Amino acid sequence: MTKTLKKVESSLHGKISVPGDKSISHRAVIFGSLAEGKTEITGFLDGEDCMRTIDAFEALGVKIEKDEQSIIIHGNGVSGLKEPERPIYLGNSGTTARLIMGVLAGLPFHCVLHGDESLSNRPMDRITVPLRKMGANIDGREEGKYLPISIRGGNLRNIQFQSPVKSAQVKSGVLLAGLLADGKTEVKESAITRDHTERMLQAFGGMVSVEEDRISIDGKQSLRGANVQVPGDISSASFFLVAAAIVEKSHVTLENVGLNQTRTGILDVLKKMGASIQVKVKDPIGGEPIGDITVSYAPLKGTVIEGDIIPRLIDELPVVALLATQAEGETIIRDAEELRYKETDRIAAVVETLKTFGADISGTEDGMIINGKTELSGAKADSYGDHRIGMMIAIASLIAKGEVQLTNPECINISYPEFFDDLAKISSTLS
Fold first, then answer.
1. Which residue of 9, 49, 284, 399 shows the fewest CB atoms closer than 10 Å?
2. Which of 165, 199, 229 corresponds to the end of one domain?
3. What is the DSSP secondary structure assignment for residue 410, as one 8-state letter?
4. 166-192: per-residue pLDDT in tens?
């Protein structure tokens, strides 16, 4: 499938409510399934990835009802989960894979996980290694490095784990296993990553201790059902924030967006590069800060993006690279090697794609170097089956001279099924 995109005719204006946060939606289903009693989730992201998490827990015997307004989970606690009748298919969802492994490691039965071609080539040893140390019996391709993976869990022991990667998925998988293990499990991070798991544990009545870069959890806790309202996803919002920042005379507001400080690196980078940005903070929902973000066009300047901010905007870096093509001077992105292990090698994909548009960009081992300001030209560009790359291309088309042919745009449904509808609300460029 190919979608034709054209340069915006004037400027971007309007207000958008982006879909629910992908990370929080995944976790709400997981904790609701582990809890005893009813959990109701509103604002749930009904993208393909999050639906894989629902499918997985239904396969484990959880009753989950879905309608246009909410997701209702009838939890029977950990003991209510049962051995699935067949292997569980995870599609392209790395979050589902790494988090559910933590749950399955603590359950006294056998399960096989498999995914699509992309997920089957993403490294899973970062989570299977600590789970084995806790006592889970795990096997798979290249000794459990790749899906399909077989897990026979139960009788886990606690662990003190130093995460070798800056990954909230790995941290969360170990904490979930720790919830089902004997004793206290501790995770130490080399850099602070998104803390939705820690927040949601508490919302479901769990006890978790957070001391700077150390998170610990006592095993054998029982959770109780909760009502979860999912805020708008700042990763999805970032595409429109960048669009407003690079299309002249634009003024766009994103409403009710999650402002968790472990996720707001994109706002810090926009400000540092000179974007005109305002944030109106609102009352928190479900323990998560939210607010309205307004961005207006302004001249941009290059910057250096590195260190501890990287985990706070790792999913936004593809569109940040696009932003940098429209900034005067050099922008350097470092310490982002984790991008190579996403849905695709996002460093290679971003560099190749933006070069196709005429950008002055080169890849490094752990990031990119972008020289701006550069005029972009229309081209044929592939999403690589990666939703973030697909949306980046769509935003690039707003300023590129000539038509852009986006192939495989359907992958955007993974996180943002209404993306093109919302883009059309603030512009009239799509065909």
1. 9
2. 229
3. G
4. 899 999 999 999 999 999 999 999 888
> Could you report the per-residue pLDDT of 190-230, keeping only the tens digit for each?
888 999 999 999 999 999 999 988 999 999 999 999 999 99
In Å, how far from its chain's centre is CA 166?
14
335 is catalytic: no
d(CA 105, CA 153): 4
Rounded to two decimals, what is the model's pTM? 0.93
Report the Cα 224 to chain-centroid distance in Å.
Answer: 26
Range of the domain at 65: 22-229
pLDDT higher than 70, residue 86: yes
Measured in whole angstroms, the distance separating CA 414 from the mean position of its chain's CA atoms is 10
Judgement on whether residues 116 and 242 belong to the same structural domain of the protein: no
Dihedral of the alpha carbons of 306, 309, 310, 312, in degrees to the nearest 10 = -170
Report whether the peptide linkage leading into residue 289 is cis, meaning its omega lies within 30 degrees of zero.
no
pLDDT of residue 430 exceeding 60: no
Q: Do residue 89 and residue 210 come from a single domain?
A: yes
Q: What is the CATH number of the domain that holds 286?
A: 3.65.10.10
Contact between 379 and 352 under an 8 Å Cβ cutoff? The reply is: no
Question: Which of 21, 233, 315, 422 is labelled catalytic?
Answer: 315
Are 181 and 126 members of one domain? yes
